[in-house]
Amino acid sequence: MREGIAGQGALLAVPAPAEREVEGHGVAEPVARVLLETPVPHLDRTFDYLVAPELDAAAAVGTRVTVRFGAQESHGWVWERARTTTHLGPLAPVQRVHSDLPVLTAATMALVEAVAVRCAGTRSDVVRLAVPPRHASTERSEREAPGPALPTWDAPEAAAEAPGTGTARAEAPGWEAYDGGPAFLGELAGGGAPRAAWCALPAVPGVTSPWTRLLAAAARTALSSGRGVLVVVATTGHAEKVAEALRSALPGEPVGVLCAEHGPARRYRVFTRILLGRCRVVVGTRSAAFAPVADLGLALIWDDGDNRLDERHAPYVHARTVLALRSGLEGCALLVAGYSRSVEAQAYVEQGWARELRAPRPVLRAAAPRVEVPGAPELEAEGASGAARIPSLAYRMVRRALAAGPVLIQVPRSGYAPVLACARCRTAARCQTCGGPLSLGRSGGISCRWCARGVAAWSCPECGATSLRMASVGAVRTGEELGRAFPGVPVVVSGARADHGVVATVDDSPRLVVATPGAEPHAEGGYRAVLIVDASALSTRPELGASSEALRLWTNAAALARHSARVMVLGGAEPVAAQALVRWDHPGFARRQLAERAELHLPPAWRTARLDGASQAVESALEEARRAGFETLGPVPAPVVPGPEGQGAGAQTMDRALVRAPLARGRELAAMLRLRLRERSVRREEQVRIELDPTVLW
To answer: Which of 141, 402, 506, 613 is least enclosed by beta carbons within 10 angstroms?
Structure first.
């Protein structure tokens, strides 16, 4: 045992309190072991309470209860029922059972335990993600309503074939377009639990099918084996589209959409239907990864590199991690899918934990769009315009494409002029109140992007100049410039900060669609050309995985184009990522990124914990990690988090450090950090914020 955790051996050597049997007054298991709803780390254990005879039937394992803890009432969940207790005195009774419907199934509780252990968190925080707030009237109406008659499904033809026979029908391209696809479905049809990372291709008639159609075939295969299906996507809008596609492909099969944005009543209604076994196919956002689908057979996460699938609150777990743990615990199949390949998904493949589903090169060439990245010779041949943000060769491509239909222009920055700088010395303009960046709106007003305060007068702290210039151009300004370049052509701007917000779809009439990444509308029949500008803004950021994220966003935009369309990338894209897009070689790029991270001891090749907190608390945690033999980096000052009233009134100042361990010691690292949180909680010391395998390191 290492020195850093040797002190715990003395605690473990202390004899546990003797168990005693509790008189139940006719109740077979009168003791309810309750997990309290509290984020306090040292209270992350069960407490014994007495179940009165009148509550015996209602206080089942997994139900939500109210108990007295200390001087106040607390909510919690019945984690176990037993006849014995180690508590020496009389047991306090369970005061109230909120509902006799167990909202925590045995599978969910096992998953909650696994997530808490892996992420060094508390079970209460995980349950908060897994179980939506109760809506009593909705629960009552759903339990009283008769359950629907669920249809019986046969496996699709491709899934019923023996793996490797190659007898799937060529006139109906589907899973046979991918190496290992029919074998995956065949194993799924037989009740197996295959795991795979799937790089889907854009749909091309006669070559490849839309990924939603392939998902429907896989869902039907899982249903034919008597098991459920769970699909996790990044946004509510995307979940609705996928659910509609599944309803069309699986007529008569109830498809539930589980999203927090739908509100308490609608969300809890779908959750109750899933819990009662009335909904076997579920589509949702990141919290839906915990959905209590009975006998789960297939779990799919689409576009897992999207940071919206990463939980922002403790225990900071990614939906991909939840589904991976669930695959191991429940024996369900797992598909980590997308047009691109995340480094984390590639790590599953490299470790042999998941197989690879990938189209052979001839199919890829026939389905992937044509991507161009103009180099220095091409741009120099354009003369002076070659140095412009959008050179003349791009304008010619757009003009030709507009004769046939819509053209997409992806701009990495939203707004009008999101970054301003001093016109004389080029120093970035910052807010004098909170230190945030200043931006220019379409109306000409200057405001802070952090605190939203308007700025009437500004002077440069370096040279004293009072004039400003645009250091970057946003989507709104780009739309204005293109509107002047193509008079008479409609311009649609799609983005969170655009006047009309995010536009879902556009028709096939000629128009310019300017969109920020992730806000690109679907065009009827596909875009006739795609132009990606300011590529360096995404691909060369000083962040872990910046080039991988840029490649993912570029790929998602290119996938919206027609097969015959041209895709052009401008603005100094990172060369390796740009070439991966040209070759449509996302697994190769992810493999290279994973090898680089292994050399640098970075996630997912190594397990890494980011610690944030007061200097003394962070240094104390680092010292314990060093004694345990883990690698440490830091501490350094953490980035300033602006408070509600700006830096002066509400900013938090913290230190940040990293603790790293090889994968073989990952569980030990998480256990050490989790124990550290509990010890500091017991001593009422200032806590350290711990995030394992973060996407942002510094």
So the answer is: 141
Is residue 670 classed exposed, middle or buried when 0-12, 13-18 and 19+ CB atoms within 10 A define those classes?
buried
509 CB-contact burial (10 Å; exposed 0-12 / middle 13-18 / buried 19+): exposed
- pLDDT of 163: 46
pLDDT digits (tens, 9 = 90+) for 184-243: 999 999 999 999 999 999 999 888 899 999 999 999 999 999 999 999 999 999 999 999
User: 335 and 355 in contact (C-beta within 8 Å)?
Assistant: no
Helices (H), 33-180: 106-119, 123-130, 136-144, 157-160
Helix (H) or strand (E) segment spanning residue 299: strand 296-302
Give the 3-state secondary structure of 521-550: CEECCCEEEEEECCCHHHHCCCCCCHHHHH
Which residues is 493 bridged to in the sheet? 514
Enumerate residues 6+ apart whose C-beta is below 8 A from 136.
99
Tell whether the model's pLDDT for residue 599 goes beyond 70.
Answer: yes
Residue 283 CA to residue 255 CA, distance in Å, equals: 7
Residue 93: helix, strand or coil by DSSP? Answer: strand
> Residue 548 in contact with residue 593, Cβ under 8 Å?
yes
Average pLDDT, the chain: 88
Tokens of 21: 């049997």
Among residues 358, 376, 367, the alpha carbon closest in space to that of 589 is found at 358
Is residue 183 a contact partner of residue 163, using CB atoms and an 8 Å limit? yes
Place of tokens 């309810």: 32
Q: DSSP secondary structure string, 547-608?
A: HHHHHHHHHHHHTTEEEEEEEEE-S---HHHHHHHHHT-HHHHHHHHHHHHHHHT-TTTEEE
The confidence band for 172, taking pLDDT boundaries of 50, 70 and 90, is: very low
> Which phi-psi region, left, alpha or beta, contains residue 363 (left: φ > 0; alpha: ψ -120 to 50)?
alpha
Contact 281, 228 (CB under 8 A): yes
Three-state secondary structure call for residue 625: helix
Three-class SS of residue 343? Answer: helix
Map residue 471 onto helix, strand or coil: coil
Per-residue pLDDT, 3: 40
Which residues in 224-255 are b (16+ Cβ under 10 Å) and which e? Answer: bbebbbbbbbbbbebbbbbbebbbebbeebbb
12 has a pLDDT exceeding 50:
no
Q: Which amino acid is at 512?
A: L
Q: Which of 36-50, 424-438, 534-548 has the highest mean pLDDT?
A: 36-50
For residue 287, count other CB atoms closer than 10 A to its CB: 21
Span of 445-454, 622-631, 669-678 with lowest mean pLDDT:
445-454
Percent pLDDT > 70 in the chain is 93
Contact 143, 276 (CB under 8 A): yes
In this predicted model, what pLDDT tens digit does every residue of 364-382 receive, in sequence order?
999 999 999 999 998 888 8
Question: C-alpha 435: how far from its chain's center?
Answer: 30
Contact 143, 272 (CB under 8 A): yes
Query: What pLDDT is stored for residue 49 in this prediction?
Result: 95
DSSP track, 210-261: -HHHHHHHHHHHHHHTT-EEEEE-SSHHHHHHHHHHHHHHSTT--EEEE-GG
Residue indicated by tokens 């493949």:
349
CB 463 within 8 A of CB 422: yes
Report the C-alpha gap between 217 and 227 in whole angstroms.
14
Q: Which residues contact 583 (CB under 8 A, 6 or more apart)?
A: none
Count of other CB atoms within 10 angstroms of residue 629: 12
Length in residues, the chain: 698
Contact assessment for residue 335 and residue 298, using Cβ atoms and an 8 Å cutoff: yes
pLDDT of residue 279: 95
Q: How confident is the model at residue 648 (pLDDT cuts 50, 70, 90)?
A: very low
